[in-house]
Automatic annotation (TrEMBL):
<comment type="function">
    <text>Small GTP-binding protein which cycles between an inactive GDP-bound and an active GTP-bound form, and the rate of cycling is regulated by guanine nucleotide exchange factors (GEF) and GTPase-activating proteins (GAP). GTP-binding protein that does not act as an allosteric activator of the cholera toxin catalytic subunit. Recruits CYTH1, CYTH2, CYTH3 and CYTH4 to the plasma membrane in GDP-bound form.</text>
</comment>
<keyword id="KW-0547">Nucleotide-binding</keyword>
<dbReference type="Pfam" id="PF00025">
    <property type="entry name" value="Arf"/>
</dbReference>
<dbReference type="GO" id="GO:0005737">
    <property type="term" value="C:cytoplasm"/>
</dbReference>
<dbReference type="GO" id="GO:0003924">
    <property type="term" value="F:GTPase activity"/>
</dbReference>
<dbReference type="InterPro" id="IPR027417">
    <property type="entry name" value="P-loop_NTPase"/>
</dbReference>
<keyword id="KW-0342">GTP-binding</keyword>
<keyword id="KW-0539">Nucleus</keyword>
<keyword id="KW-0519">Myristate</keyword>
<dbReference type="GO" id="GO:0005730">
    <property type="term" value="C:nucleolus"/>
</dbReference>
<dbReference type="InterPro" id="IPR005225">
    <property type="entry name" value="Small_GTP-bd"/>
</dbReference>
<feature type="binding site">
    <location>
        <position position="78"/>
    </location>
    <ligand>
        <name>GTP</name>
    </ligand>
</feature>
<comment type="similarity">
    <text>Belongs to the small GTPase superfamily. Arf family.</text>
</comment>
<dbReference type="InterPro" id="IPR024156">
    <property type="entry name" value="Small_GTPase_ARF"/>
</dbReference>
<dbReference type="InterPro" id="IPR006689">
    <property type="entry name" value="Small_GTPase_ARF/SAR"/>
</dbReference>
<feature type="binding site">
    <location>
        <position position="34"/>
    </location>
    <ligand>
        <name>Mg(2+)</name>
    </ligand>
</feature>
<keyword id="KW-0449">Lipoprotein</keyword>
Amino acid sequence: MGNGLSEQPSLLSSIPFFQSFHIAILGLDSAGKTTVLYRLQFNEFVNTVPTKGFNAEKVKLSLGGHRTGTFHFWDVGGQEKLRPLWKSYTRCTDGIIFVVDSVDAERMEEAKTELHKIAKTSENQGVPLLVVANKQDLRHSLGLAEIEKLLALKELGPATPWHLQPACAIIGDGLRDGLERLHDMILKRRKALRQQKKKR
Ligand code: G3D
Ligand code: MG
C-alpha cells in the first residue's frame, strides 16, 4: 500500500533523459579529431582526409544508465591557418574535446599553447574540457602523467573542469568513457549555473 509517492524516484529515474549538447572538437592537425568524430557517429573506422573547413555531425548517443543525449559535434580543421576559426566554434559551446597525438612529443608544446589559449578566452571560462590522449595504440606513445605535465593541465585553474582520457580513436577505445565524463561535467556545470541564477 502507500500513496505512490515513494515510487516516484524510481519512476523518474526510469524515464530516458534527453538533452542536447554542442561540442567543439579541437586539436592540432593530424591529432585524430575527424577519426574521433566518425568513430563516435558510425562506431566504425572511416578513412579521413585532412579537414579543410569543418565537419559537423549530430549524433544521438545513449550513455550510462538511462541517459540519452543528442550531441552536435563540430570538428574544426587544426591546421595553423584554420585555428583562428576555433574561437567562433567554441562560442556558446557546452563542452570542448581537445585531441592530442600522444606520439607527437615535438608538438606537445604547441598543443599546450593552443589548448590554454582556447580555455582562457572569456567565452570559454568554465566550459568543461575533455582532453583525449589519442593514438595510445602506438608503441612510442607518451603516458598520461607525462601528457598531463606537458600540457600543464593543472595550470588551467579551478574554473575549468577537465578530464584526461587515454584513447585509440581508430578502434574507439576510451572514447565512450571520455564522453561520459564530459557529459557528467556538463550536467554539473548546468546545475551550478541554474543555482547561481536562482540566487540572483
Ligand atoms: P585530424 O582530423 O585531427 O587532422 P585525422 O586527424 O582524424 O584525419 O587523423 C590523422 C591520422 O591519424 C590518420 O592517418 C588517422 O587514421 C590516424 N589516427 C587517428 N587516430 C588514431 C589512433 O588512435 N591510432 C593510430 N595509430 N592512428 C590514428 P592517415 O594515415 O590517414 O594520415
Ligand atoms: Mg580532420
